[in-house]
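In this supplementary section we document a worked example of the pipeline. Step one takes a protein sequence of length 488 as its only input; no multiple sequence alignment statistics are reported here. Step two produces a three-dimensional model, which step three serialises into structure tokens for compact storage. The input and output of this example are shown verbatim.
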Amino acid sequence: MSTASLSTLALGDHYARAFPDLAIAWEAAEAPEPRLLVLNDRLAAELGLAPEWLRGQEGLRLLVGTGVPPEAKPVAQAYAGHQFGSYSPRLGDGRALLLGELTPADGRPRDLHLKGSGRTPFSRGGDGFAAVGPMLREHVVSEAMHALGIPTTRSLAVVATGRTVYREQALPGAVLARVASSHLRVGTFQYARATEDTDLLRRLADHAIALHHPHAAEAENPHLALFESVLDAQASLVAGWMLVGFIHGVMNTDNVTISGETIDYGPCAFLDAFDPSTVYSSIDHAGRYAYGNQPAIAEWNLARLAEALLPLIDDDQDKAIELAVDRLGAFRSRYNTAWLAGSRAKLGLPEGLDDTVTTALVNDLLVLLRDNRVDYTSFHRRLGEAARGDLERAREAVLDLAAVDEWLSRWTALAPDADAMDRVNPVYIPRNHLVEEALAAATEGDTAPFERLVAAVRDPYTERDGLDRYAEPAPGDFGAGYQTFCGT
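The serialised model returned by step three reads:
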């Protein structure tokens, strides 16, 4: 049964009630002229929200936060975080609000959360607003990640507010409404630890266990098991990013979820030509969050979570450190296991193939792609054709024919499974030049290119007539100096 009235919408306030020390009651700023830019009808239906109601005036008020059920208690959440390696003790939702928790028919609660809804007590020098372009970027990229099978927060809607937002230039403002299994972050635990209130830290950890990792409750040391569960989730998540060529761009600890979902799509992008040193974010001047650094940064961020959890792991700090370091030491092997399994699938390799053979084959391919500046996504898709006997499109993508022929000979001798490859190597991703084209048009009022792009990436593995340009690498003159921006 879909909800079609604010008065009947059940929007829980569990987090607001359970953690008043980690949340401040707040209200969204007024939106002068709200206008729906995009609505995720499928997601709305999953959440038990009637799409036709969300398109109406009452639904729009919910989506910008100015109309909530009478019992709702919107809050700005508190958290700390290491930003580019430097610790900030008080960050929090500077332009966001947690409206509350929805519980759809599947019984799994989801946060309903806004970005761009105005200043909060955590805003510092920011205006609390967001522009149309960055909010639409989060919509299309998060939908692509969901379609690729990578855990992610989801965009429910983007609503233009009718407010002008000032960045380098005047831009039309917007609010993003998104859902997540929670917005608990490593930074949330860092904030709780900094209060020196062990009871608060314990309640937060027990809440995270109950919500995301219930099996940890049965462990001999539940809070150590929580840490290990988050480690597993993040190892799998970042391996997924690497396998599809995704660059998050701002892997600060406040952007690392306890659930293992991708969150906060700011200066994110997908690889064009393969290069582990690729950085697109305009604020990542030292390349800390380059594509190839992401696994190591994930491990570093998890070490910060371990530090926050030490008082719960053991009363003896030295013992707690020993246990945490031991568990943290498993990250690399767990990441490598997930990455190698995914790489084996991308190359259609048979089960039982020795890991050393697989690793050598994959690493040699990546060197080949890097040295020849080959488009990462399209080359892997062309390998499906090569597995069926047509090698030419794969060969023509590489300048060094002798090297690619030698690699293809080794690979084809293993009888790769082309059908299996097509199930994991996408045809369509949110290619950077197409994203920029779509966002520029939408900012000027034309959402048609954006809608076509979303339609393409929602079904990434099925090649379709009329979508050739969505499968093609970026034009040769596009990539040089390309940058993405946070939008704050």
